[in-house]
Amino acid sequence: MDMEEMKVTRFPKDFLWGSASAAYQIEGGWKEDGKGVTNWDTFVRIPGKTYKATTGDVAVDHYHHYKEDIALMAEMGLKTYRFSVSWARIYPEGRGTVNEKGLAFYQDIIDECLKYGIEPMVTIFHWDLPQALVDLYGGWESPNIIEDYVRYARTLFEHYGDKVKYWITLNEQNIFTSLGWLTAQHPPGKFDAQKTFYQVNHHAFMAHAKAVLAYREMGGKGEIGASFAYTPSYAIDCKPINAMAKRDYDELKNFWWMDVYAYGRYPKAAMAYLKKKGYAPEIADGDMDILKKAASEITFMGVNYYQSCVCEYNPMDGVTPYGTMNTTGVKGSAQELGMQGIYKNPANPYLMTTDWDWTIDPMGLRFCCREITSRYGLPIVISENGLGAFDKKTEGNQIHDEYRIHYLKEHLKELGKAIEEGCEIWAYCTWSFTDLLSWLNGYQKRYGFVYVDRDEEDGGTLNRYKKDSFYWYQDVIKTDGENLYK
């Protein structure tokens, strides 16, 4: 079961019990107060891209409800709130003139958090790119983005640096790039653009690195890192070819990102493979030095953990990376994916899945913390973990989401064990605080502790209702996790 059965008494006293959100998914106010149009504002208007053509035009209207939402966080006892800034609210054109009203909005959010003793944790980029930069030079496809991103990041450091101690440069770089350039499910909606995909990632790495260095040059003494969507892997059995498939999966799907953040270098075997295929990115002189320098300045590894996967050798004529993703909540509609000649990811027969076919594996959270601890020796911020589900509001406006409580409780128990086993974990942020727009999945896939009255069609009262999980997490925070073991 464990290295040895240990009784976890409680989480560290200064542990940051948190919750998270992203600007596009909660704010709404998509054209208000000078905000520019983003790539997501454009993408969701393409027919057939999102569930029931849902958009973030209104989302859950956090733009007008932020005081109410943060007051609910305070009532819960939240220690940290992770949110993202919309680049297009700060620079409507992505560069050029700063939008003062945008700056003021996030200043208000930060001040509101601090008023209640909630530590603001700011994500600089959570997928919503000013459309103007896409039109100008192709967004992340051009190295020009590096300078624009760093200017934007510097603006945030300059205005909020005295009040914000935790910074996340990029959210799930591995996801927005793969869904954007390999599977066409996210903007810019390109399919199988392998060479571009790796080039885009190199630009994103350089943007991250230069922002980290800018933060330190400006005297930033806080914590800074990136948030990686980490899907730890298990070999399907002890057949060496399947163990090697896991090795290849890890190098191509996990270490490709984490090694750059933590060491400032690309994994050798993965790079050798990409060179052979002709997909390796162009790397300018001096880039690797900058990545290395930034790696010595980050102070944590951010992890968004939802599921683990299984690896098995995939023959040359086997499954491809391009199957159907479940965005409807109809169980069993996702397809098996893989890279031909390398690995495939079959279902794990030992684990349950959500209605969206995501594997539920609490121990995987501990597994990934242990892996990061031994491979990188960095402290960890769990920047997302949560359960998307169909929640029903009953008479009397109650929402009984015991399945969410069970999910979070089991994951937290494993996180507690990881701490006992020597992992340094600073924060745990659930996804999410209120219900929100789940990108492609609409509003029916709910993640929050707070139910928001709206559905796929715009409308609904947008009233906030506390779910059972709200009171449960409130108690977890109050007891520093002691109640997990009762």
UniProtKB/TrEMBL annotation:
Gene3D superfamilies registered for this protein in UniProt: Glycosidases
Active-site residue numbers: E384 (nucleophile)
InterPro entries from the UniProt entry: GH, GH_1_N_CS, Glyco_hydro_1, Glyco_hydro_1_AS
One GO term of the biological process aspect: carbohydrate catabolic process
Gene Ontology annotations for the cellular component aspect, listed alphabetically: cytosol
Pfam families named in the record: Glyco_hydro_1
Family: Belongs to the glycosyl hydrolase 1 family.
PANTHER family: ARYL-PHOSPHO-BETA-D-GLUCOSIDASE BGLC (PTHR10353:SF136), GLYCOSYL HYDROLASE (PTHR10353)
UniProt-recorded name of the protein: Aryl-phospho-beta-D-glucosidase
Protein's organism: Mediterraneibacter butyricigenes
Gene encoding the protein: bglB2
